[in-house]
Structures are given as structure tokens and as C-alpha cells.
Design a protein that fits this description.
The structure holds two protein chains of two kinds. Chain A is an alpha+beta fold. Chain A has one domain: Molybdopterin biosynthesis MoaE subunit (Aldehyde Oxidoreductase, domain 3). Helices cover 27% and strands 34% of the residues of chain A. In chain A, strands 3, 4, 6, 8 and 9 form a five-stranded antiparallel β-sheet that branches. In chain A, helix 2 runs antiparallel to helix 3. Chain B is an alpha+beta fold. A five-stranded mixed β-sheet of chain B has the order 2-1-5-3-4. The termini of chain B are far apart. The chains are: A alpha+beta, B alpha+beta.
């Protein structure tokens, strides 16, 4: 399926350059540009993270990112939104996500940028795997709900208590 | 009918493949497909975890009817960004 892609949405294995996204949304009609960078952290719940790997269902991820872009423009009245997501291996301290939002006034730009990241984490099919010293795990997947249970023991009928 | 089903991330690793052909009755729903996939790959997810399915690049309800040429993907909990 051919998807009409906006240049404002990028999914790439290459390093992300924040200026590229900031410049994509800049217009003389704007008084504010907010650019958010998501960077990879060296610890997770006390464990030392060595590197991360991102995997995407690319066709749908593009579609969902474009959907978020259009929603934010309509709901917040911002002039434009550009989003870049890196996939593949991302070393510690590198940029995995760039969201740039331009608006006539700063408050809409800040709010739309915050909301972009929140929505992205809920609906865009991109997954993150963290590699530790001595282990690895898919973030959001391998929590207590997804732990493999011993196959010989029958499943309890009641759902397990939510420990969160 | 035979449906082609793609796996990503945790599901890909647990299934041991990126794509599988799954036989379901004509007009089967997403819920019926998930049951067949679970039978083929019991390790995918515990029974009390709902498996999310995308059909033709949109999240699909369990009662959605499937067709032979649909693009079907099993979607583990997402965690993009940072």
C-alpha cells in the first residue's frame, strides 16, 4: 500500500538532527517553537542499561504519527508539528525522539508538544527493548501481566491483583 | 481461509517468526483469529492478557470480520518515544 507521506513525519535508523525538525515547522507567523528531545537513559529501575533497540510497524506508525500531527493542529490551533522517531540500535545518551511544534503563542506550543509525546506512547506501534548487563526486556510488554508462567500450573480463574 | 499474520517485538520473539499463515473459517472475526493464533503459539501472552490486533493499519475490535487479503498484525503494548 502506498501511503502519502508528509515530510513532517520521519522514522529512521539514522541519527536524528533536532534542527531539521525545528526548521521544518518555523514560520514568520509564529512566535514560539517548542522542540522536545527524548534521549536514552543509562538506568531503568536501578539497572544499568547498555543500549536500546526500537522496532516499528513502520507503515502503521507513520499513519498514527500523521494522525497525531493532524489532531494536534486541529485541537491546539498550532501551526505545524514535525515528529522524528529513530528505530534500530540507539546508544545511551542519543536522541530517539524529536517533536517540534510551532505556534503563534508559546502556551499552545508547549501544551501540544507535551500531548504529542503522551499520545505517541499510547497509540504508535513502536517498541523499545532495553539491554542490561545480564539481561534484556521489552519495555511495557514484559511487566507482571506478561511474565511467562509455568506451563504445568493451571491459570488462576481470577485475574491477578494489580500491583501498580 | 488462510490469513497472513505479522508479529512484532515481544510477539515476534515468542512466536519465533515475523509472519505466520493461520487457517480460520471464512468470515472469522479478530477474536476467532486470536484464539487460533494462541493455539498455535501458546507462549505469546498469558490468557488474561488481551492481544491487540491491527487490521489494515488500524486497531481493530474483537468482533471485526476478516478477509483473506487483510493486513493483520499482532500489536504488543507500545512504548515508543522516551
Amino acid at each position: 500500500m502506498v501511503i502519502a507521506m508528509s515530510e513532517m513525519i520521519v522514522i529512521t535508523c539514522e541519527e536524528l538532527c533536532p534542527d531539521q525538525f525545528t526548521n521544518l515547522v518555523r514560520r514568520d507567523t509564529n512566535g514560539a517553537v517548542v522542540t522536545f528531545l527524548g534521549t536514552t537513559r543509562d538506568t531503568f529501575e536501578g539497572r544499568r542499561v547498555i543500549r536500546l533497540e526500537y522496532e516499528a510497524y513502520e507503515e502503521m506508525a507513520y499513519r498514527k504519527l500523521e494522525e497525531i500531527r493532524q489532531q494536534l493542529k486541529a485541537e491546539f490551533g498550532v501551526e505545524d508539528v514535525a515528529i522524528g522517531h529513530r528505530i534500530g540500535v540507539v546508544d545511551i545518551g542519543e536522541i530517539s525522539l524529536v517533536v517540534a511544534v510551532a505556534s503563534p503563542h508559546r502556551s499552545e506550543a508547549f501544551n501540544a508538544c507535551h500531548e504529542a509525546v503522551n499520545r505517541l506512547k499510547h497509540s504508535v506501534p513502536i517498541w523499545k527493548k532495553e539491554f542490561y548487563e545480564g539481561g534484556e526486556h521489552w519495555v511495557a510488554c514484559e511487566d507482571h501481566m506478561f511474565q511467562e508462567r509455568t506451563e504445568s500450573s493451571p491459570e488462576p480463574l481470577a485475574a491477578p491483583a494489580d500491583n501498580d | 481461509m488462510e490469513l497472513s499474520v505479522r508479529f512484532f517485538a515481544l510477539y515476534r520473539e515468542r512466536a519465533g517468526c515475523s509472519v505466520a499463515s493461520v487457517a480460520v473459517p471464512e468470515g472469522a472475526t479478530v477474536a476467532e483469529l486470536v484464539a487460533s493464533v494462541r493455539a498455535l503459539y501458546p507462549r505469546l501472552a498469558p490468557p488474561d492478557v488481551q492481544i491487540v490486533v491491527a487490521v489494515n493499519e488500524e486497531y481493530a475490535d474483537p468482533e471485526t470480520s476478516l478477509h483473506a487479503n487483510d493486513e493483520i498484525c499482532l500489536i504488543p503494548p507500545v512504548s515508543g518515544g522516551d
